[in-house]
C-alpha cells in the first residue's frame, strides 16, 4: 500500500471521529475556537489537493485534465479549470532543469499552503492582479501581491476587497489604461441559465467602439414613441432585438457548421396545436410557443416538428432546400446538443458524428447512424480510443477505453424530461 493511500485512510478515520464528536461538550466560547481549527484543517486539505493537481498528467484515451477532473470529482468543468489555474499560480513549480521554484503568486501561495486563506481571498487577489494596467511594473506588482496576502491573513474577503480597491487606485492614480488593457476586459456573458420565467440576465463590458455604435442605434430604434409605456431599458432591449432579427438569415453572414446563421427550433405538433408549452432551440433555450409563432412571421428560421407521442418527425420548415443540411437540422432537433455523457455543449456548437463507424473508415452518412458531438468529444473517438453506438431507443452511448477513469453512457443534460419520466419526442 502506498504512503498516500495509508495517509488518506488515516484521514478518513480522523474525519469520522471529528464528525462523531459532540461540540456541545465545549463551553459556548470554545465552540468558535473548535470551528476555527476545523476551518484551518479544511483549508489545508484544499491547498494540498490543489498542489496534487499539478502532478496530474494526460494519458492515452483521456480527455484534457480539467475534463477528467470534473467528472471524477463531480464538479463543474469551470470549477475544474479554476482548480488547475489556481494550482499553477499557488503551488511550487519546477524549472526545465528540475529546480524547484516558488509559486507565481509567492506570498499568496505560502499563506494558502498554511491554511490561512479561503478561496474567496484568492479570488480577490487574482482579480486585483488581473485588472492592473500594463504600465504597472513587476516590482510594484510583487509588492502589492505580498501586501494583499498579508492583509488576507487577518481580514474577511469583503474587507480585503476594499483594500484591493484602494491599492489599485494608488498604483494607477491617473486612471490610465491602454487599448490592450481595455481590449482584455471587453466581453459579454450570460449570467447563469434561463430563469424560471424564461428570462435571462447577461453582463456586457463594452469597449468605446461598441458603446458608440450602440448609442447611435439606440438613438433611432430605442427612442420613445407617442403613448409608449415601455421603460428606457425595455426600449433598448427591443432595439437590440430589432438589430439581431434584421441580420439573422442574411446570406452575407455565411454559414455556421454548414447551416445558415439563424434560429433552429424543435417542437411537437401537440404544442403547436395547443399554442402552449415550450419549443427548444439548438442553443438549448426554452422558447414559449407564443414567442415561436410570433418569431416565425418576419424571419427565416428553421422549425422541426415532431409527434409528441410517437416521436416521429412530421415536418421541416425552411426557406429553401438544404440537401444534406436537412439531416443536420433533424439531428439538432433530436439531440439538441453533444451526446457525450454530461457534456453541456449545445447543438449550434456541436458537429455531426458517425455513431458506429466513422465516415473516413467506411461509415455511411445514414441518418440512423448520425449523432452530435462537440469538437473535444469527437476527438476522443478519433484519437483516444473511445467508441460510440446507437441504442435501440435512438440514444447515443459513449464507451471509454478500459484504462480511463470515466463512466460512459448517454447524455440527459439536453433532455431534462427524461429525468422526470416524461415522454421524449
TrEMBL record:
It holds the Pfam family DUF222. Residues 393-425 are annotated as: Disordered. InterPro entries: DUF222, HNH_nuc. Residues 34-334 form the DUF222 domain. It comes from the Bacteria. Residues 414-425 have a biased composition (Basic and acidic residues). This is DUF222 domain-containing protein. It comes from Mycolicibacterium aichiense. The lineage of its organism: Bacteria, Bacillati, Actinomycetota, Actinomycetes, Mycobacteriales.
Amino acid at each position: 500500500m502506498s504512503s498516500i493511500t495509508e495517509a488518506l485512510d488515516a484521514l478518513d478515520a480522523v474525519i469520522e471521529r471529528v464528525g462523531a464528536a459532540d461540540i456541545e461538550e465545549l463551553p459556548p466560547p470554545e465552540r468558535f475556537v473548535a470551528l476555527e481549527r476545523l476551518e484551518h484543517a479544511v483549508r489545508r486539505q484544499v491547498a494540498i489537493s490543489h498542489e496534487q493537481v499539478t502532478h496530474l498528467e494526460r494519458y492515452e484515451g483521456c480527455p484534457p485534465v480539467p475534463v477528467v477532473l470534473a467528472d471524477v470529482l463531480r464538479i463543474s468543468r469551470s470549477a475544474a479549470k479554476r482548480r488547475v489555474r489556481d494550482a499553477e499560480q499557488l503551488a511550487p513549480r519546477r524549472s526545465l532543469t528540475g529546480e524547484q521554484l516558488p509559486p507565481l503568486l509567492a506570498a499568496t501561495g505560502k499563506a494558502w499552503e498554511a491554511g490561512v486563506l479561503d478561496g474567496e481571498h484568492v479570488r480577490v487577489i487574482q482579480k486585483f492582479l488581473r485588472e492592473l494596467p500594463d504600465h504597472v511594473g513587476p516590482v510594484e506588482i510583487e509588492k502589492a501581491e505580498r501586501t494583499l496576502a498579508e492583509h488576507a491573513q487577518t481580514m474577511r474577503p469583503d474587507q480585503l476587497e476594499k483594500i484591493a480597491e484602494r491599492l489599485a487606485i494608488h498604483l494607477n492614480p491617473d486612471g490610465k489604461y491602454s487599448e490592450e488593457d481595455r481590449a482584455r476586459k471587453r466581453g459579454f456573458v450570460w449570467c447563469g441559465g434561463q430563469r424560471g420565467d424564461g428570462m435571462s440576465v447577461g453582463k456586457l463590458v463594452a469597449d468605446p467602439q461598441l458603446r458608440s455604435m450602440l448609442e447611435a442605434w439606440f438613438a433611432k430604434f430605442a427612442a420613445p414613441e407617442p403613448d409608449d409605456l415601455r421603460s428606457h431599458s425595455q426600449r433598448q432591449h427591443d432595439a437590440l432585438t430589432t438589430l439581431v432579427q434584421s441580420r439573422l438569415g442574411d446570406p452575407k453572414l455565411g454559414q455556421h457548421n454548414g447551416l445558415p446563421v439563424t434560429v433552429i427550433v424543435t417542437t411537437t405538433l401537440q404544442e403547436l396545436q395547443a399554442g402552449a408549452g415550450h419549443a427548444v432551440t439548438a442553443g438549448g433555450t426554452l422558447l414559449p410557443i407564443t414567442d415561436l409563432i410570433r418569431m416565425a412571421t418576419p424571419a427565416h428560421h428553421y422549425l422541426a416538428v415532431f409527434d409528441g407521442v410517437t416521436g416521429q418527425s412530421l415536418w421541416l420548415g425552411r426557406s429553401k432546400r438544404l440537401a444534406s443540411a436537412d439531416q443536420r437540422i433533424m439531428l439538432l432537433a433530436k439531440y439538441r446538443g453533444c451526446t457525450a455523457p454530461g457534456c453541456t455543449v449545445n447543438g449550434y456548437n456541436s458537429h455531426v458524428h458517425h455513431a458506429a463507424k466513422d465516415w473516413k473508415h467506411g461509415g455511411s452518412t445514414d441518418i440512423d447512424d448520425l449523432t452530435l458531438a462537440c469538437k473535444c468529444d469527437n476527438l476522443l473517438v478519433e484519437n483516444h480510443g473511445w467508441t460510440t453506438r446507437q441504442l435501440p431507443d435512438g440514444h447515443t452511448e459513449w464507451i471509454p477505453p478500459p484504462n480511463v477513469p470515466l463512466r460512459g453512457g448517454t447524455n440527459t443534460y439536453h433532455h431534462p424530461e427524461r429525468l422526470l419520466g416524461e415522454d421524449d419526442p
